[in-house]
Design a protein that fits this description.
alpha/beta, 9 strands, nine-stranded mixed sheet, about 220 residues
Length: about 220
């Protein structure tokens, strides 16, 4: 099986991350992963991107962590794909399958309400995974669930409690959504790691989406 990290942050774009994209690539290669999907915090989350930039400038800066990871990945034999973690009042939605170029062409994503955002992503060939849906923190006033707008749920997150992950699994099963796992790694020295695995190496972001939609993957 080929292991892939589905939830990882870089210091180039996520204000809370301490590891660069290149460092994350080397870390996951050393842990036997076939690839990673860089999911930095989007502009409505804990982003390190200056708000005064133009849309194109924002996207260019946002993609630097991914691009640095991709460059290093090409050197060491690690697949690296582009994604992001969209936020809404403490709820976070991992977005997969769309490119930096697509993002540049669609600044409308920041003008949409969260329900319309999810619809727009899915209509354009992406998928939405609700990350750590039952995360509790002082800055989260209310848990928001959107079972009809998501493809799946992160039921195993390395940085959440057993209770939070258990609740996520119950939620996922109740709505017959796709179960997902990710490490939510910000530091490139995390001991507990998770992700998904496939029987073959992934060749594109589109193939990743198709295999996930068809349930041809496993959690680990």
């Amino acid at each position: 099986m080929f292991k892939y990290e589905t939830h990882v942050h870089t210091s180039e774009a996520s204000a809370c991350a301490s590891a660069t994209g290149a460092a994350q690539a080397m870390f996951y290669k050393s842990r036997g992963y076939a690839g990673i999907i860089v999911t930095d915090h989007f502009f409505n989350g804990n982003s390190a991107i200056p708000r005064e930039y133009t849309w194109e400038e924002k996207v260019e800066c946002f993609a630097r962590g991914y691009e640095n990871a991709k460059k290093k990945g090409n050197e060491i034999g690690l697949d690296v794909y582009f994604g992001w973690e969209y936020s809404y009042k403490g709820a976070d939605f991992l977005t997969y399958g769309l490119s930096k170029e697509w993002l540049k062409e669609n600044p409308i994503v920041m003008d949409l309400d969260v329900n319309s955002y999810c619809d727009f992503i899915r209509d354009n060939g992406g998928i939405i995974i609700h990350a750590h849906p039952f995360r509790e923190a002082s800055y989260i006033p209310m848990i928001h669930l959107l079972p009809r707008k998501c493809d799946g749920v992160e039921i195993v997150n390395s940085n959440r409690t057993e209770f939070e992950n258990k609740m996520a699994a119950m939620y996922c099963e109740s709505y017959d959504l796709l179960p997902f796992a990710g490490s939510d790694n910000h530091s490139a020295n995390q001991d507990k790691l998770n992700g998904v695995s496939f029987e073959k190496r992934i060749e594109s972001a589109g193939e990743f989406v198709n295999l996930v939609k068809n349930k041809k993957y496993r959690l680990f």
